[in-house]
Request: fold
Amino acid sequence: MSATESPDDILPDLDEPGSLPFWQGCAVGELRVQRCVDCELVTHPPRPMCPGCRSIEREWIATSGFGKIWSFINVHPPLLPAYSPLAPFPVIIVELEENPKIRFVGNLVAAPGAPINSVAAASISIGQRVRVTFELVQDVTLPRWVLAD
Amino acid sequence: MRDATAIVGIGQTAFSKHHVDSELSLACQAISLALDDAGIAASEVDGLASSVMEPNREVEVARSVGLGDITFFSQVGYGGGAACGIVGHAAMAVATGQCDVAVAWRARKRAAKTSRPWAQVSQRVADKSMWSRPFGLLRPVDEIAMLTRRYMHEYAATRDHLANVALGARRHANLNPNATMHDKALTRAEYMNARWISEPLCLFDNCLETDGALAVVITSAKRARDLRQQPAMVHAFAQGLPQQHQTMTNYFCDDPLRGPAWTAARKLWGTADLGPKDVDVAQFYDAFSPLIPLSLEGYGFCDRGEGASFTDDGQIEIGGRLPVNTSGGGMSEAYVHGFNLILEAVRQIRGTSTCQVTNAEVSLVTSGEGVPTSALLLTKER
Ligand SMILES: [Zn+2]
Reply:
């Protein structure tokens, strides 16, 4: 366990087959989104049927991993025990560069592997360009974000 | 549906930070008070509507209060979005003849497990929260703060606008002896210096946490005319769950700032023979202050992006253009999942609010923006 990990961290359930390919992608360094095999509509978060054409043929594709900050907050207590020692910490939403309607909740960190409170919220602004990086927490690889420029 | 039913009885327990009575007891007390207010016997009640999050089941309530044979019972989902839907379902059941006298209620204790679902989360999440909670976006306030920051960015809204909402609610609560914050003033300086909860939202952008219960009695317009209270006619009712909506983490659709209020409003105004300009007083669900500008826009009181400046110059306070949350609302009266807003909307029609809008004839009340929601348009009998 790394210095910033806690046994109480909230993590995705890897037994959930509808979303597992996303987390498998993170483990191999790919930020993936779900795409419809039939009409190529991209959706995130994933769902079992394409809302565009009602196909159930789903596939996962790698994104560019680049995006822009769409919004951000700075989280203060009261918080769950795993997160209290890190407060305050920023949380961001990233809109994907090639498809700004696809957005991800995540954390901006100072460098790959740095803790989620390593960037001061006061230095963050909407529109900043970011790229994805990844961090292993227990048995799950989570996407993180660093400034791209 | 239009004007077919009316709210004819209201009842509420005291609001408290810690009630010793059980939630079931609180629910029964509120319903009993509402029946007495209406002058209707418990045995006449044959319809029940409540929240999916309500801790008390219909069977427990019915056998404690001594209700009659129940021929309609339903529950409405989505937490703070449910309250107007609960009353609306009851009204529809009366209007369609599935029951004659319906009771809608909500009881809640802040210490109860069901009151804080975010704090009950397990370490492994399989539902939609897997896309937000692992990154520290943990609480409802965080989810709404994210939309607030984007709203401020797009429309040049400021903390002063959010303070307008908090201070307006507090001034109204200062007039309401039943309000939790009746005796506590709030200044702009106190607001600006308050501790952050989820920046850009501070302590005073958040609602209270309250123990209490409230209930209303609904019956036909025809019966309402013979009862002791001035009826609050259910002129229109709507629910709203927009396309591609994902509840409070609604960041994944084309236009996240166009929330469920827009969907509910389209149906509400579409079924009413009134419009926003006819509304004398509004109770907007206010778990968080930014929901007021978003609701002002969604329900058509101003254009997009103008909700923030609509709060300036006392326009949402008593005497202003559209008095909002005249009991103090969730932020300064009580937070019982927005059900107290419904009772205040009724009091405005009756003329019995502690912050009464003179000759109020059209009274709007809404439930939670940011989740699948609902709204009621109440009127004086016309
Ligand atoms: Zn498709």
